[in-house]
């Protein structure tokens, strides 16, 4: 028991140190984003920081399979059932831009639930998830005149704390059994983002990334994410956004009665308003 607690503390400390290092890099970022061959006005623009805070809602559905200590449950809550069966989650997105670089930190807290029946057996599944994403985009270039298209490369990390609980009951027999498990994972990921300006005030971007790669016991077997987003500049400081986000994770450990697995896709529309300063 002491060993398990120590392991969890060690994982948490490692994730905390990664976040601290990332913040220090952000604060002390040198002026390598400057274009030495550009004009003075371009140099000033490249060396100026821009910060954006975007609180938003992710109205999600969840599909997949959850296994807790050998007991498997299928989770399938469609978008049509959102208002009745799903929790809404508040997500915050923090952005810092300078020149060709864009840094971000995104803490998420989600609580998803599903229930169903298999004959006379009732099955309730509850998943609590703390997700912290952090990383950076680097702009490779922008092409086109009337409808310019930009391409960014992406690298970062995704920390997961997942708590799964499966409740199985047979009301006719008065039987009930609860099992639960917790898991901490940290996935490195890489990806791309493509963006375009539809009008002076309206932009669209599409992001895709993939991570995990089963490189250790503390990473998922595979995780991926896809986001499509429209952004509208209401004013110089206020931004409104709407789009769709899908996030998939697949991990498995143990076997038999000790098997724990989480293979789900979380998806749904996102709505938010950001403040630029």
UniProtKB/TrEMBL annotation:
Keywords: Signal. Residues 1-33 form the signal peptide. InterPro entries: OMP/PagP_B-barrel. It comes from the Bacteria. This is Outer membrane protein beta-barrel domain-containing protein. It comes from Candidatus Jettenia caeni.
């Amino acid at each position: 028991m002491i060993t398990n607690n120590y392991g969890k503390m060690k994982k948490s400390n490692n994730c905390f140190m990664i976040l601290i290092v990332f913040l220090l890099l952000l604060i002390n970022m040198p002026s390598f984003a400057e274009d030495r061959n550009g004009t003075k006005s371009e140099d000033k623009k490249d060396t100026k920081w821009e910060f954006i805070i975007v609180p938003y809602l992710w109205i999600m559905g969840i599909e997949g399979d959850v296994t807790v200590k050998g007991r498997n449950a299928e989770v399938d809550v469609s978008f049509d059932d959102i208002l009745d069966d799903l929790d809404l989650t508040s997500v915050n997105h923090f952005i810092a831009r300078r020149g060709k670089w864009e840094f971000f930190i995104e803490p998420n807290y989600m609580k998803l639930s599903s229930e169903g029946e298999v004959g006379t057996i009732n099955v309730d599944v509850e998943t609590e998830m703390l997700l912290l994403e952090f990383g950076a985009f680097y702009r490779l270039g922008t092409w086109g005149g009337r409808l310019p298209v930009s391409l960014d490369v992406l690298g970062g990390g995704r920390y997961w704390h997942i708590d799964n609980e499966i409740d199985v009951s047979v009301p006719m027999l008065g039987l009930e059994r609860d099992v639960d498990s917790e898991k901490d994972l940290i996935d490195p990921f890489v990806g791309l983002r493509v963006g375009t300006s539809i009008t002076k005030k309206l932009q669209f971007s599409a992001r895709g990334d993939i991570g995990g790669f089963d490189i250790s016991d503390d990473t998922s077997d595979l995780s991926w994410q896809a986001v499509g987003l429209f952004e509208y500049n209401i004013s110089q400081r206020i931004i409104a956004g709407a789009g769709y986000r899908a996030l998939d994770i697949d991990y498995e450990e143990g076997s038999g009665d000790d098997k724990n697995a989480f293979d789900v896709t979380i998806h749904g529309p996102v709505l938010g308003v950001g403040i630029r300063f």
